[in-house]
Write a structure and sequence with these properties.
7 helices
């Protein structure tokens, strides 16, 4: 039970940090989540209330953070560009070529060329 409590506390601390960094009050976040008062946010941040995965996903979107940040997982892993490109069905051939050009430029810069 202690591990679950520690994890909830850690998630709550991360939510508080991200909320404050975004310059939102507990009431702002509560309203964005559809809560009537800031009490729920206060309890989540203190680790006294669990947050549902649905609400955690909403919080991640509201606070512009990767969901993994709140779970304490490494969020600095590089994005697999090929997967990202395949995930967006609306990219035109021109969009894909422009992105690949940027990737080539980044590689050249990284290699000192």
């Amino acid at each position: 039970m202690k591990n679950t409590e520690e994890k909830d506390d850690s998630i709550g601390k991360r939510i508080k940090f991200a909320r404050e960094e975004a310059k939102l009050s507990q009431m702002d976040l509560a309203r964005d989540l559809g809560f009537e008062s800031a009490t729920a946010i206060s309890l989540i941040e203190s680790g006294d209330r669990n947050v549902t995965i649905e609400n955690l996903e909403k919080i991640a979107n509201i606070l512009h953070r990767d969901l993994n940040y709140f779970l304490g997982k490494d969020t600095n892993k590089p994005i697999d560009v090929k997967i990202a490109l395949r995930a967006d069905p609306d990219l035109t051939t021109q969009d894909k070529e422009a992105i690949m050009h940027l990737i080539d430029l980044a590689k050249k810069r990284a290699n000192g060329k």
